[in-house]
Each structure stands twice: as structure tokens, then as C-alpha cells.
Design a protein that fits this description.
With 516 residues, this protein is mainly α. The protein folds into three domains: 15-247, no CATH class; 260-386, no CATH class; 410-515, Glucose permease domain IIB (Gyrase A, domain 2), CATH 3.30.1360.60. It has helices at 14-32, 35-44, 53-64, 66-77, 83-109, 127-143, 160-196, 199-211, 218-227, 242-247, 260-277, 282-299, 303-310, 314-333, 346-351, 361-386, 435-446, 475-480, 501-515; strands at 231-234, 237-240, 453-458, 462-467, 485-489, 492-496. A four-stranded antiparallel sheet has the order 3-4-6-5. Strands 1-2 form a two-stranded antiparallel ribbon. A hairpin with a 2-residue loop joins strand 5 and strand 6 (492-496). Helix 11 (260-277) packs antiparallel against helix 12 and helix 17 (435-446) packs across helix 19 (501-515).
């Protein structure tokens, strides 16, 4: 009998795989967001800058507890900022690390590798925090409203979540205490293989780092490279990951990071100039791209630029990924090393210019200037040769929301479009309502109405929505509201709404709960 293809049969869907991975990637952004503060304090406190040991210790304390921060951040990110899930993550991590640390030294005494030189939960790096964060979030979703017998009623509901998390963490700590020598050895071997590829390895990383941005999965890749790759015996113990090792003084750290500086400080800003230069409506393109170019140069935040051409000219995004890979290869071959605490912008470049383990920073600047020229001429060629619809060159369709990249105070539903209609959930005149509430209500309507929206999550520049009927999503109306693009993968719909996405998602969830 042929396999059933009816709605009752199980059918493979990429959305069923990408959805959870995208949620994890979004949740990872909360703990990663603390890195700029940690890196700034740690760097400024060094002897070659302010020479304040207490300030360096403050930044080091964050790096020393990244695993716990990841556990809490992931638990919060996957449960809609539930406090009980955060408490459960803390309890779970403490139990997990206590059990693991009791078993790991015993295994190390038997010569188990790689624990022989570590002997503590630190040998797992942020993986321990990720495991506990996912565990706490899953148990919260399963048991946050559990009802216990009357004589145990006090421990029911959300109070039950930290209890059950502690029990599960007890088991996980014992399991990983025994299996991590094998798993850890495999991960270490993979990392050594990637490092052993030299320039090819950094190029592969750079290519997929950019290519995965539309799916929101680059955060998952970054987590391994930034916080797990390699080991270094620092002053306070063994540390892992390119970023962590760099700030711990590892002379070999930074090769997987340095290649981003030419792209973010020079390449993408030059691409913006090319798009402005060849725009039919220069003022429109300038309004969209100039502020984004400055943000990329100064802070290394690139998504506003990348999403400006990702959907209207995807060939440029592929070119951008290839150029990023080439920059990683070039900086590696030249022996350039430099790290960053947040992203490869001018702020991190200046802060880390004189770090002892930064190598050839002036040469990095020269490479950046050269890549600025490459990006300008390559983007100019593709835009003119293929008449690409970059900002300021597209037709009327889908351009009503070109203000998506402007400062948030200037954002709002585009006038004269369907997006300007009053939200179907509002009882007040639109002019009396908060602009974000209006936009949130209209976005819900464009997604097929509240009854069609199962969940909404906000990322840095996009809304990640799970809908019941993807065909009910009105992409034209979403673009009229300011979306620069809409990506559908099964029931998962990503709407690129710019840097205000987190706030709009909160408004949308509030309206969903109010309506419910």
C-alpha cells in the first residue's frame, strides 16, 4: 500500500527542522548581547590602557560565567521571558555542574581525554549552559501549569519547574560526566581539523556565516566558533572559543575573527555608496543606506545593509558571502590577528589595536581599504549589468515601505497603502493610538489575522512567526507596512521589519493575548 499523503500522515517539512533551530539562534542573542560590556571592561582594565585590575576583573567575571549566562538567556528566550524558567536554569546549571565536576576529575585520573587537563564543567564550555537552558525551557513549557495533589499543591505550577529541572539536571550531569570524554574528543578533533585547514577553514566559516543569515542560523554557527573552538590555559584556567581565548591573551586567537573587519568597516559601507551612486532616486537610497553604512563601520551591525539587497538582488548576497570568505582567507594568509567583543566595527578595532595578541592591525586597515574598493566596483558592475532593483532603483511595487531601515522614531505604516488601514482589533481612532501598536495590529492582519498566527518571536531585524495557513499571509501588504522581505518555510514565516522587530513582536504578542 502506498504511503499516505493525506493530512493525517506525517510529511517531512524543512520548517519542522528550521523552526526550532531558528528559535535557538534567536535565544542565543540574549547571552551574546552581554559580550560588548564584558569585552569593554576587560580591555579597558588592562595595563596598556587604564591599568585598573578591578575593572578587568569585572569583565573577566562575565567571561568566567558565560555558561551560566547562556543557560539563563536561552531559557528566557525560549519561554517568552518567563522568570520561573530563568530560576530553573540557574538551579539546573548548579546541579549539573556539581555532579559533572564530581565525576570529571575521576575520569581525568584515569587518563580520559580531553578532561585530563581540565577536570571541571568548564571543559564543556558554553555547551553545558546551552544544554541546561534548553532543558529548563522544555520543562517549563511542559510543567508550568501542572496540578499536584492538594497536600503538594504549594509545589505545583511554576514552582514545580525548578524542582523537576534539578532532578533532570542530576541525571544529565551524571550522563555527561561519563560520555563527555568521547563527545569532547570528537568536538576537539573537529575543531582541530577546521583549524588545520588554515586559510581554507576560515574561508569556509566566513562563507557560511553570511550565507546562513537569511535563515537566522548563523548564530548557531557563531556559538561554536566564538565560544568553543580551541583551548587555552589562561590565568584563571582553561578557556575555549575564539572570542574568549582572544581576551584571555591567547596569541593564536583571532584568525577566525580578523577577516570580518575589512567587510564590516569598509566593504559593506562601500557597497552602500555603490547602491546610492547607481540609484534612480538618490534621496531615497541615501536615506535608507547612509545611516546603515555608518552603523556598519562604527559597530559592525550589518543586517540593515544586507537585508536592503538580500531579497531584491539575491545574487549580490551570494557575491557578498564569497567576498567575506575571501577576506577571511586573505587575513589568515597574511597572518593578521584581531578579535572583537561584539562585532568587527571601528569601536572594537580601536579598543583592540594595542592588545598584545593583536597582530598587524595597520595591515588589516590596508586590507579593509582595498576591500572597500572591491565592494564598490563589484556591486556597481552587478547593479548596472543586471539592472538589479537595489534601494532607489526598484519599481513601485513593494517600495512603499522603504523606510524600514530609518530610525525607529520615523517608522510607521506606509501612507496610501493597505498597511495604512486601521487595525481590525482597534476600537480607538488610529491617530489616538501608539504607532507601534498600529503597526503590530496591521502586521497581524497581514499575517492572516489573529486566528492564523500561532506564535510571534522578535529577533534583531525580523519577526519569526508560526502561522496555521501560510497561504493566508499577504506579502504585498507586509511590504507596504515596511517589510523589506518575507521568507516562508512551511508554517514558519520570517518578516524583515528592521531594528524595531523586537518591540513590534512584543506588541503583537500583547494583542494576541488580549484577544484571547
Amino acid at each position: 500500500m502506498a504511503a499516505s499523503t493525506s493530512g493525517q500522515g506525517r510529511k517531512f517539512s524543512w520548517g519542522s527542522i528550521l523552526g526550532p533551530l531558528q528559535s535557538i539562534g534567536r535565544a542565543l542573542m540574549l547571552p551574546i548581547a552581554v559580550l560588548p560590556a564584558a569585552a569593554l571592561l576587560l580591555r579597558l582594565g588592562q595595563d596598556d590602557l587604564l591599568g585598573l585590575p578591578w575593572m578587568a576583573a569585572a569583565g573577566g567575571a562575565i567571561f568566567d560565567n558565560l555558561s551560566l549566562i547562556f543557560a539563563i538567556g536561552i531559557a528566557i528566550g525560549l519561554t517568552g521571558s518567563a522568570g520561573a524558567a530563568a530560576v530553573a536554569a540557574i538551579v539546573g546549571y548548579l546541579v549539573f555542574s556539581g555532579v559533572f565536576n564530581s565525576l570529571a576529575p575521576q575520569l581525568a585520573e584515569e587518563g580520559a581525554d580531553p578532561l585530563a587537563s581540565m577536570g571541571a564543567v568548564d571543559s564543556m564550555g558554553v555547551f553545558s549552559g546551552i544544554i541546561i537552558g534548553l532543558t529548563a525551557a522544555g520543562l517549563y513549557r511542559r510543567y508550568n501549569d501542572i496540578r499536584l495533589p492538594d497536600y503538594l499543591a504549594f509545589f505545583g505550577g511554576k514552582r514545580f519547574v525548578p524542582i523537576v529541572t534539578a532532578l533532570v539536571a542530576l541525571v544529565l550531569g551524571a550522563v555527561f560526566g561519563f560520555v563527555w570524554p568521547v563527545v569532547g574528543s570528537g568536538i576537539e578533533a573537529m575543531g582541530q581539523w577546521l583549524v588545520g585547514l588554515g586559510a581554507v577553514g576560515t574561508g569556509i566559516y566566513g562563507f557560511f556565516n553570511r550565507l546562513l543569515i537569511p535563515l537566522g542560523l548563523h548564530h548557531v554557527l557563531n556559538t561554536y566558533i566564538w565560544f568553543q573552538l580551541g583551548s587555552f590555559q589562561g590565568a584563571d584556567g582553561v578557556v575555549h572559543g575564539e572570542i574568549t581565548r582572544y581576551f584571555a591573551g591567547d596569541p593564536d586567537a583571532g584568525s577566525f575573527l580578523a577577516g570580518f573587519f575589512p567587510i564590516m568597516m569598509f566593504g559593506l559601507p562601500a557597497a552602500c555608496l555603490a547602491m546610492i551612486r547607481h540609484a534612480h532616486q538618490t534621496k531615497v537610497a541615501s536615506g535608507i543606506l547612509l545611516s546603515a553604512a555608518f552603523a556598519s563601520f562604527l559597530t559592525g551591525i550589518t543586517e540593515p545593509i544586507e537585508f536592503a539587497f538580500l531579497f531584491v538582488a539575491p545574487v549580490l548576497f551570494l557575491v557578498h558571502a564569497i567576498l567575506t570568505a575571501s577576506a577571511m582567507v586573505v587575513t589568515t594568509l597574511l597572518g593578521i590577528q584581531m578579535g572583537f567583543g561584539f562585532s568587527a566595527g571601528a569601536i572594537d578595532y580601536v579598543l583592540n589595536f594595542f592588545a598584545e595578541n593583536t597582530d598587524k592591525p595597520l595591515l588589516l586597515l590596508l586590507v579593509g581599504i582595498l576591500y572597500g574598493g572591491v565592494y564598490y566596483f563589484v556591486f556597481s558592475f552587478f547593479i548596472k549589468r543586471f539592472d538589479l532593483a537595489t534601494p532607489g532603483r526598484g519599481g513601485a511595487e513593494g517600495t512603499g515601505g522603504a523606510d524600514w531601515i530609518l530610525p525607529e522614531s520615523q517608522r510607521g505604516p506606509a501612507k496610501g497603502t493597505e498597511g495604512g488601514e486601521e487595525s481590525e482589533a482597534s476600537e480607538k481612532p488610529e491617530e489616538e493610538r501608539d504607532a507601534d501598536d498600529v503597526l503590530a495590529g496591521n502586521a497581524l492582519a497581514a499575517l492572516g489575522g489573529r486566528e492564523n498566527v500561532e506564535s510571534v518571536e522578535g529577533c534583531i531585524t525580523r519577526l519569526r512567526c508560526v502561522v496555521s495557513e501560510p497561504e493566508s499571509v499577504d506579502e504585498t501588504r507586509l511590504k507596504g507596512l515596511g517589510a523589506s522581505g518575507v521568507v516562508k518555510r512551511g508554517q514558519v514565516v520570517q518578516v524583515v521589519m528592521g531594528t524595531q522587530s523586537d518591540r513590534i513582536a512584543e506588541r503583537m504578542n500583547r494583542q494576541l493575548k488580549t484577544e484571547a
